[in-house]
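REQUEST ID: PR-0412
SUBMITTED BY: lab tech R.K.
PRIORITY: routine
TASK: structure prediction, single protein chain
INPUT:
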Amino acid sequence: MCKNFPDIEALIEFRRELHRYPEISGEEEETSKRVLKYLQKLEPTKIVEFNKYGLAAIFDSGKKGPSVLLRADLDALPIQESNKFKHRSKVEGVSHKCGHDGHSTILCGVGDWLTKNKPQKGRVILLFQPAEETGEGAQWMLDDRKFQKIEPDIVFALHNLPRFPMHSIVHRTGTFTAAVISMVVKFRGKTAHAGQPDNGINPATAIAELLLESNKLTHNEPADEDFKLVTPIFATLGKHAYGTSAGNGEVHFTIRAWTTERMRTVARKMRDKARELAKRDGLDCKIKWIQEFISNVNGEKSVDSILSAAKENNLKTIEVDRPFRWGEDFGRLSSKYKGAMFGLGAGENTPDLHNPDYDFPDELIEKGIRMFSSILRQYNY
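STATUS: complete
OUTPUT:
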């Protein structure tokens, strides 16, 4: 097993510090500084700071060999924490409810392990990515010229998974997480007196029919390859002015499918329907696309590396028969480079991700480090 293993108690304290001071996507300045300070103590070959608070620690053997990138995420969520423990969030309305504080801590622990167990060939890149929750951060990294100079050969990431046995390794070859995009549709018509709505243009009918269309396009059967889900998220119409027929309205959706191509096909159909309804009713229609996650596809050989690491650490493996419905920004990296993501079971009784009472289980830190270090030994030792 791993020699010179990191101080887990110190890492737990670090994780709880990150938890106390969460920052939402695109605002991870202080989180990035805390991680940077930790990495500087490890004296890697090089630390690279990217735009928008991303950073990477590179451990280079100086010898020919593969460049292996491990990714963690930095951002928290705009969710009010309901927990009352000592390390609860000190930021009103913001908290780590997806476990990114734990993911970053695991990667810092891997850095500690690499300091004591230098790579013997190739390079190891520890990437700390901002804005995973909005599907923006990975592309920010890929677009950064400093990242383009790194150019990994293979990439790995993990995500903690409540509802699975503690420390189990959850895997799947092929699509691991869904492709997702969010759609904002704004209709602008013309107000009129509520007693004479025919003198105006009210977008209510268009919004209602677009909501019905979302249901028609949905095939909510996850076992089918043709799974597609259009979920209404938010809608608003007019104002609380009961003498006035509404002149403006908007409606938001998330669209998801197992493949990026299918997700984009459904998105085009929703776009075309919105424009058709607007043209029919004489409405101005503006459509905005936000938070796109392309499907995260795991390579077979990369999954084999994950399974070998699990076997080395005597961890139970669970192969899921279908992808997860949530989006994961790691898909941007796994679509460009060979690689895979795996799940790390967070306990069957642990609150779900994004629940207000969720907290990353500290007992996962050691197993996460052991998994990543075992994967690295297959490539860099």
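NOTES: The first helix runs from residue 8 to 20.
REVIEWED BY: pending
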